[in-house]
Every structure is written in structure tokens, then in C-alpha cells.
Design a protein that fits this description.
The complex is a heterodimer of chains A (387) and B (132).
Chain A lengths: L5 E5 L11 E7 L2 E8 L7 H5 L4 H9 L6 H16 L5 H29 L3 H22 L8 E2 L2 E2 L5 H27 L1 H7 L7 H6 L5 H4 L7 H4 L20 H24 L18 E9 L2 E9 L7 E5 L1 H8 L12 H7 L4 H4 L17 H8 L1
Antiparallel strand pairs in A: 1-2, 2-3, 4-5, 6-7, 7-8
Helix pairs in contact in A: 2-3, 3-4, 4-5, 4-11, 4-13, 5-6, 6-11
Chain B lengths: L1 H11 L23 E3 L9 H5 L5 E5 L11 E5 L9 H5 L5 E3 L14 H17 L1
Antiparallel strand pairs in B: 1-4, 2-3
The chains are: A alpha+beta (387), B alpha+beta (132).
Chain lengths: 387, 132
């Protein structure tokens, strides 16, 4: 008898998160035998757009690739261009940048854990985490001036400085935040419902995670100790002591617990940075507007994993090419093997455990729909088309 | 699970975290990036904010009258429908001419720009001159 395989589309409307992506799930009964990822619903052409804009204008363009990890996008772009322009940001500016990035990591990890609670049907926990996340957003507003988009980076420093009053407020509020994060971590670790849904869902083994080049908490949840902050320190991470969190289980539950532990580690980093904030200027007096010809690679650890920028300059006021490789791109597209063998009801849980950010991912897709033919274009042909 | 139940039950008796927005307005911090406009008594018309604006929200318009400190005779007008409130204009201004506020309720039926707010700063000078 022939096996009947059924294909079920999950998404593109609200697959698990409120972002458009489609998973074509092939099922044998309840069991998943294969998944195809279909993207392209959120393509905006950011990379092409950046080529026609000045270096300074692009700071704000790249921070808008992703709403949640905007500061780290700015950091990766700004540190790359600073390398190109040969500018060294002052230590105080580096510390303020680090504080902003870590606050962002805390609220990013909190929101994905809240969404995970919502996906598994635990809405009261979702509400509670979102309530406490608002305190972190408030701190971001206090330092940078906006809840979401910090927009604090500029070539050679930051746009706003921190005074002692703000430092005291942030340190005071961190105590409450830490207490709540510890509480939620305990809930995720011990709660019967959460364990029932997350443990053994979407197991990724140590060697599989490396083979498929996964990044971020997804990689560290499989026991691989890899973190750009520790491996290739940027901003002030070289001077701040912190632990790289790993877990050996490799399932969805381990990935969520890695996030909670990292959030706790981030609280410690922010506290250390505020207590050891160097004195001196942080705001640059002038901004450079032109870069010499050259090519730089720049990477940073976004809440979702390694973020990579490749910037090419041919001199002048505009970049020649900026290539962005975001962590979600690796995790969503390369992580499809994790669904195999799972039940259909586990698919949204596994997708959420990767912490996918769709708007991050979709800048690189080429669609040729004039004749209704689907075609994959090689990079060389694409370069010829552009001319 | 029991522990979480305790938390949930205790929240029933607490004051709600959410606020009834139009009746009660959230208090922004004094560093919130709200509506900003150029003060024409300080603006020198250098157009740096126009050059750096990431969303092309700033246009340089002709001044209604010649000002001694503004040799070029132009001033920036911000289209608030396009503005991102990134404050690059405030940061880059060499004359520190931008007035910053924490006003965040900018939604309305009509398209707004900063022209009238900027021109008002000019009449403020003439009134002060008259009184002195």
C-alpha cells in the first residue's frame, strides 16, 4: 500500500509569530516528514536602497531592518564604517552602546519567551512577561529617548550621554527586573505544562547544530560554546566579565532556558557597565561624511545570534555595497531538519524556539515573476542583470 | 503551577497596569524624542539637517523676511508625517537651533509641518523687541 503524504501550509498569516512566513509541512499521519520554508512576503530592498544613500543616512536605515534588534544592527554597521574611516570611539561611548545592546537583549529574550507561552496556550504567562518587559522598554526610553528605536549610535561615539541621575534610576530598576527574570526562569524550568510541550520538541544534536551552521541561543542550546561577544569582542565586551551560557539538551526547552540565563547575564553586564562607566567625552564634536575606498567585515552578537555586515566602499559619500547576513536567516532556513519526526502541533513551538525574525531575514530574495516561472538566479547572473 | 496560580490570583486584587488612554495620559520621560522644530532666531540656514535627514522629511524654504544671522535666507520645514524622530537634525545642528519637546500625540486629520511653529518663534522676537 502506498503511503499517503499530506501537505499542510502553516502560514503565511500568523504561523506562530505575527510575521509572514510559510512552512509547507508534509505529513504522514500526524508525523512531520519534511518542511519547506517559503519566504518573500516581507522583502523591502534595504540593501539596494542603502547604495543610493549617504553613510550617515544609512545608520537609520539599517537600524530599521529589524524592530527588536535595532541597536545591534546599528552597532554592526557603525563599527564597520568606523573601521573603514579609521575612527576609534571613546571608551565611555563604547560602554553606553553596550548598555543599550544588553537592555535590548533582555527585552528581546523576554518577548520571545512570552510569545512561546502564548503559542503553547499559556496566555496569562504571556501577559505577565509583557508587563515586566515594559520596565526594560522604559529604561531604553530613559537613556536613548525612545522605547523601541534607540538611534543612539553615530560615527565616533553616541548621540546622548548618561548622567548620574539616570545611572541611579537604571541600577535601581535592574534589581526588580532581575528578580522577575529569575522568577520566570523558574516557571519555565519547573512548570508542568511548559515542560510537557517543550521538552524533547525539535531536538538538535551538537554536531547537527555545527553542520547546519546555526547561530545564537539555538546553537548554544545544543551545547556549542560560541558567542561573538566572547570570541571576537567588540564595543566594551572585552573589558566586561560575563559567562557564555550553554545547555546540552538541544530541545526547544533548552533554547528557552538559555535565553532566560542570558537575560540574567545581560542584567549583570548592564550593572557592571554602569558601575564602571569611564569618564570622558562620549559625544563626537564632528561627524565624518566620506569614507576612503576599502572593504570591511563587521560582526556583532544580536539577541538571535551572529549578525554579519560586509561593507564595500569605493570612496565618497555612499557605500558601494552593504551585505547583511542576519542570524534568523541561518536559523529558519537551515534549521528545517529539526521538524522531522515531530508532531504537527509541535511545528509552531519549534519555529518559535528558533526566535525567528522575518523582517530581518528578507532582504536577499530575488523573484522573477514576469512570466510566472520560478527561477533561481545565480549571483553572477544577478550581477549581470544589474548592469 | 501552584506558585503561578498564587501570582495570578494576587494580580486580580492589584491596580491594573494598563491605563485608559484618552482619559489618563502616560507620562513620558523628559528625554523622550518628541516633536521638534527649528528656532528661527538661532537658525543660520546651513542645511545640514536637510542633508542628513534619513527620510527626506526636511525641506528648506525661503524666509519671509531677511534676518541678519541667516545669510542664505532659508530655513528647514519638517514634515511630521515623514519624520522618524531620530533627532539627527537636533544632533547635527551647529547653532543648537532646534527646540525639543516631549510631545508625542501627533496623529490628526491634517498633515502637519513645522512651518507655523518656526515662524511663531520669529514673532516672539519682535514682541520682545517691542516690549523692550
Amino acid at each position: 500500500m502506498l503511503m499517503s503524504i499530506v501537505e499542510i501550509p502553516v502560514g503565511p498569516q500568523h504561523p506562530a509569530l505575527h510575521e509572514p512566513i510559510m512552512l509547507r509541512v508534509r505529513l504522514d499521519g500526524e508525523e512531520v516528514v519534511g518542511v519547506d520554508v517559503v519566504t518573500g512576503y516581507n522583502h523591502r530592498g534595504v540593501e539596494k536602497l542603502s547604495e543610493s544613500r549617504t553613510w550617515v543616512r544609512n545608520i537609520y536605515l539599517f537600524s530599521r531592518i529589524c524592530g527588536i534588534c535595532n541597536t545591534v544592527h546599528q552597532q554592526a554597521y557603525v563599527q564597520g564604517v568606523e573601521k573603514l574611516m579609521d575612527i576609534e570611539p571613546p571608551p565611555r561611548a563604547n560602554y553606553i552602546r553596550t548598555i543599550m545592546m544588553e537592555l535590548e537583549r533582555i527585552h528581546s529574550h523576554m518577548i520571545i519567551c512570552a510569545i512561546m507561552a502564548e503559542v503553547i496556550g499559556f496566555d496569562s504567562l504571556f501577559m505577565l512577561i509583557m508587563r515586566d518587559r515594559e520596565v526594560v522598554m522604559g529604561l531604553k526610553e530613559l537613556i536613548a529617548g525612545n522605547r523601541v528605536h534607540a538611534d543612539i549610535h553615530i560615527f565616533g561615539g553616541v548621540k546622548r550621554d548618561i548622567d548620574d541621575k539616570i545611572r541611579g534610576t537604571v541600577l535601581r530598576k535592574l534589581v526588580g527586573i532581575e528578580e522577575r527574570i529569575k522568577y520566570y526562569r523558574k516557571v519555565f524550568e519547573e512548570d508542568f505544562t511548559i515542560r510537557k510541550r517543550l521538552v524533547d520538541a525539535g531536538i538538535i544534536k551538537y554536531h547537527e547544530a555545527i553542520e547546519h551552521s546555526l547561530v545564537g541561543p539555538t546553537l548554544r542550546g545544543s551545547g556549542v560554546k560560541s558567542d561573538v561577544r566572547a570570541d571576537d569582542p567588540y564595543a566594551a565586551y572585552g573589558e566586561i566579565p560575563f559567562n557564555v551560557i550553554t545547555r546540552d539538551e538541544g530541545d526547544s526547552w533548552a533554547r528557552m532556558l538559555v535565553r532566560w540565563d542570558e537575560a540574567l547575564e545581560s542584567v549583570n553586564i548592564v550593572r557592571y557597565a554602569l558601575e564602571h562607566l569611564p569618564s570622558g567625552p562620549a559625544i563626537p564634536k564632528t561627524i565624518k561624511r566620506a569614507a576612503p575606498p576599502g572593504e570591511v567585515f563587521s560582526r556583532a552578537e544580536a539577541p538571535r545570534g551572529e549578525l554579519f555586515y560586509h561593507i564595500i566602499s569605493k570612496g565618497g559619500q555612499n557605500p558601494y555595497r552593504v551585505k547583511v547576513r542576519t542570524p534568523s536567516f541561518n536559523n529558519i532556513v537551515n534549521g528545517v531538519f529539526a521538524y522531522r519526526g515531530a508532531k504537527l502541533a509541535d511545528v509552531p513551538v519549534i519555529l518559535t524556539s528558533f526566535d525567528p525574525c522575518i523582517s530581518c531575514t528578507e532582504r536577499v530574495l530575488v523573484i522573477d515573476e514576469r512570466r510566472g516561472v520560478k527561477k533561481f538566479i545565480r549571483l553572477k547572473e544577478l550581477a549581470l542583470l544589474q548592469r | 503551577m501552584l506558585k503561578l496560580l498564587k501570582e495570578i490570583v494576587s494580580n486580580v486584587f492589584k491596580k491594573p497596569v494598563t491605563i485608559e488612554y484618552p482619559k489618563i495620559r502616560p507620562l513620558p520621560t523628559d528625554r523622550l524624542r518628541g516633536r521638534q522644530y527649528p528656532d528661527l532666531r538661532k537658525c543660520i540656514g546651513c542645511s545640514l539637517c536637510f542633508i542628513d535627514c534619513p527620510s527626506n522629511a526636511i525641506k528648506m524654504e525661503k524666509l519671509p523676511k531677511q534676518l541678519p544671522h541667516n545669510k542664505r535666507g532659508i530655513f528647514p520645514v519638517i514634515d511630521y508625517g515623514k519624520c522618524l524622530f531620530c533627532y539627527q537634525c537636533v544632533f547635527v545642528c551647529p547653532a543648537k537651533a532646534y527646540v525639543v519637546t516631549t510631545e508625542y500625540e501627533l496623529a490628526g486629520a491634517e498633515l502637519e509641518n513645522s512651518e507655523q511653529l518656526s515662524l511663531k518663534t520669529l514673532s516672539r522676537t519682535s514682541q520682545q523687541e517691542q516690549s523692550s
